[in-house]
Amino acid sequence: MHQKDSTAFNFESAPLARTFFRFTLPVVLAGLISVAYNMVDTYFIALTGNTTLIAGVSLISPVFTLLIAIGDVWGLGGSSYISRLFGEKKYDQAKKISSFVYWGSLLFGVLVAVLLLGFQRPILRLLGASTDTLSYAQSYYFYIALGAPLMIFPLVPNNTLRAEGFTTASLFGTIIGAIVNIILDPVLIFGLGLGASGAAIATVVGNASTDLFYLYYITRKSQRMSIDHRLMKISGRDLLMVLSIGIPGGLTNLMSSFAGTLLNRSILPYGTDAIAALGIANKVNMITIMVMVGFGFGAQPLIGYAYGAKNRERLSAVIRFNLLMESVVSLSLMAIIMLFSRPLIRIFIGQEDIIKYGAGMLRILQSGMLFQGIVLVITCVFQSIGRGSGALLLSIGRQGVFLYLLIKILSSAFGYYGVLFSQPVSDILTAALAALLYLFYSNKDPVMKKKAE
């Protein structure tokens, strides 16, 4: 017998604003906590005063994005499909999907770890590691690669538990990992003198703590999710439904890794200080991005449920409200961070030349946030309703084709500033593409299409 369908009330009957914030605020907080403990790594590493070490660790950021991308193949793909199945009241099928994505992420994580460790040296060179930064980048990279399965897995229950309505549990798992990481950072970096390796070990152990919490919650509290390996066998159609969203979702984040590597390599000719400054600026920039991601993708269960239930009015209302929130939040945070860019960079490092570099970079990165918010909302809509191709097109545009071409064109014309302005200009172009794709899919989709009067 199934539990009372309390999630149906949350998704369909409660006032929109209250329901929206119930699902999005925990994701926003989780995102900020993730940023906080990633910034703690940067803070403690920066305390060494070694800019080469900071630059070496900063070069590994695309690897984190890669692991997130792989986790999202299973997490986004599973939660999107599960949300739609909940809307259709197919709870037993949803439980099988959850088992499949949990085990799939763990097994695939082991394979990723093997590949990352086996191709360590060429990957580090690809990321832009030079003779100066290689040893530091290698120390950090090794433990991150070794812990890949532990870092990929939590992204799956983090998404699927929210689909069931357990937003607080999803947040609490992130908090546990953050606390463990923050406690271990100074102990391992300075107390045991492990430097970059200590920061990486703290990150992996923090993720392992999150894994343990999620495993406990799935087995003891959840009634519609399962880690039972006997349920993981699913049909070819179910597999296609998961991967049709999961792979484009993963590739979307993989394009972030590509974009990060591309920007790092494009800034490389301007020196180690510029690379270190970009690493710090990107950390601060993530404050705005993670808040926007929280509001944008926190609404995914609402959109998926409404779409699965064929409730067009509710679906349209959620999308409109989400766009409004993203606009308000992006403009507000952009203004604040631009105003306080120098003090924010100074938190991490006291060297004036790097502060100057980083503050300028941060202001430029923030300038495209409104358009990035529009792209986030529409990307979430496409992933929630099973239109993974639309989400993939936006990612390939923003972090691939547009960004690559703009870096080539603008760097040739304006040098250093041309490289930096490539990202906000890419955001503007991608927002225009997002609007066109949304109109295209809305006119084709039977649930989203406006009925003739």
Brief sketch in words of this structure:
This protein is an all-alpha fold and 453 residues long. It has 20 helices and no strands.
Question: How would you describe this structure in keywords?
Answer:
453 residues, 83% helix, 0% strand, globular, disordered N terminus
Mean pLDDT: 82
Shape: globular
End-to-end CA span: 42 Å
The tally of beta strands, per DSSP, is 0
Low-confidence stretches: 1-9
Using only C-alpha atoms, the radius of gyration works out to 21 Å
H and E string: HHHHHHHHHHHHHHHHHHHH
How large is the count of helical segments?
A: 20
Q: Percent helix among the residues? A: over 70%
Model description:
It is built from 20 helices and no strands. It has helices spanning 6-13, 16-46, 51-58, 61-87, 91-118, 120-126, 134-146, 148-152, 155-164, 167-191, 196-220, 236-267, 272-298, 300-308, 312-339, 341-346, 352-366, 369-384, 388-414, 416-444. Helix 7 (134-146) runs parallel beside helix 11 (196-220). The radius of gyration is 21 Å and the shape is globular. It starts with 5 loop residues before the first helix and ends in a 9-residue tail after the last helix. Residues 1-9 have low confidence and may be disordered.
